[in-house]
Amino acid sequence: MRSLKVHTMAGLRVVVLKPGKYGRDGDVERFRRGFMPNSTIPYIASMTPRSIGTVPIDVHSVDEYVQTDLRYLDLLKEGSTPTLLALVGVQSHQFHRALDLAAFALQHGTAHCVIGGPHPMTCDTSMHQGRGVSFALSEAETTWTTILRDAIDGKLQPAYGANARWQSEIQAPVLTPPSRADLRRYFFPMLGIYPARGCPFTCNFCSVIKIAGRRIRSQSVDTTMATLRRAREGGVRMVMFTSDNFNKYPEATELLGAMIAGNIRIPFFVQCDTQIARQESLIELLSRAGCFEMFVGVESFSRSTLLAARKSQNHPQLYGDIVKLCRRYRINSHFSNIIGFPEDTSESIHDHLNTLIELDPDTASFYTLTPIPGTDQYDDFLQRGLISESNLDRFDGTCPTWRHPALRHDELNRLLFNCYERFYSAGHLLRTLGHSRFPLQEIGKHAFFRFEAHNQTHPMSGGVRRVRLDGVNDYAHLRRYRFGVDLAPLPRSLQLTSKDLQFA
Questions:
Q1: Where are the beta strands (DSSP E) in 194-322?
Q2: pTM for the predicted model, two decimal places
Q3: What domains sit in the chain, N to C, each tagged with a CATH number?
Q4: Span 394-412, pLDDT tens digits
Q5: How far apart are CA 404 and CA 396, in angstroms?
């Protein structure tokens, strides 16, 4: 590991970068307009002090999904100021891209690199450690200050946070929103906020409980309110509360009441579990506070399938109540669906779609069942030899990656896009326009989803008007030189420490 003491006057440049992913054609997926900005970038940037001691820190934020030129790579090249590249929020399907960016940066003189996010938090990365790149294995609050100080002192450790994945209390910063220029990279000037983390459920296919734990931990309502006020002043016009179960967030009513009293008036959307069907008073309060959309993971209409996936909290007979309640309070209902559970057949997926069309939620998204590295389902499928895909780039929820007992990969792909084309019919659009708060947005979404599905491109892949600039072939030699692999091997899951078990 190189040692480089940062000179007091030189300072430290910190590049907080969310890596993109390699598409099926090998190109880095980039878009002229993104759907949703990454929530981790402003969080880490806001956590970073402007100086430590007498050493000034200069922070740069980059979301690769919406970078339509390669000038940001100049930040990773040797200059007068030592650089720390922080690759944040790295999921398994972005891991190769993160390795390649780290290798590129080190090749061009960047002093230090660290990779953090869901993949290094939940998967064994020991084979990649000790090669000039550090890995953050825990929540940023537990390690980020130490990483910055070590970068200033000239030497990063191979890994941080191995003894505890989570902190007991969240000491969150008040977020500084992206610049207005960066906000214009997305369809809407939007900011993601995590008022709480954790999920009390045990779904075997979900990585949330391995990333955030099962104990729900909240940041202070005052912090969230200060972030909302700063966001409004900074040009943010839409907020996504990215906590996975807003209806399980203990301070939800307090926050919504404060938003109403404080006249925040920023439209927002939330994620809720299906038990929201029994919480009409909360739905009413959400509506008054400005909620325009509620994302709900219904996943399947088969109770036996849900039980097999350990998603016992879902009761399909209540799904229709969610649609009715949301419509009553003018909130867009968004149902997430998974196709390709082990019990699924072509006929059962068609039946699922017919039932969904009859319930008529305002928005629906569809994903192929993916054994996400780090989850219980992944461990089970890996042990049973069911995983057929060796390239982590494909573990993104849109590509078949395992041997299904009844469905070929091409059938799953065809069924996935057929679901989008059939759900987003002209009749569905007309019904949605009758109660939508944002009718022009609904027209655009409907047209885009049908267009993308017709072109066999997943509508939720990240944005519109894809830009092709570079691809895996431009970086493969660097990955091979730095890490000694063409493809990272399918990882084993990290086991929880005794301290982590209190959150699990």
A1: 196-197, 217-218, 238-241, 268-272, 291-299
A2: 0.94
A3: 12-167+472-483 (3.40.50), 180-462 (3.20.20.70)
A4: 999 999 999 999 999 999 9
A5: 17
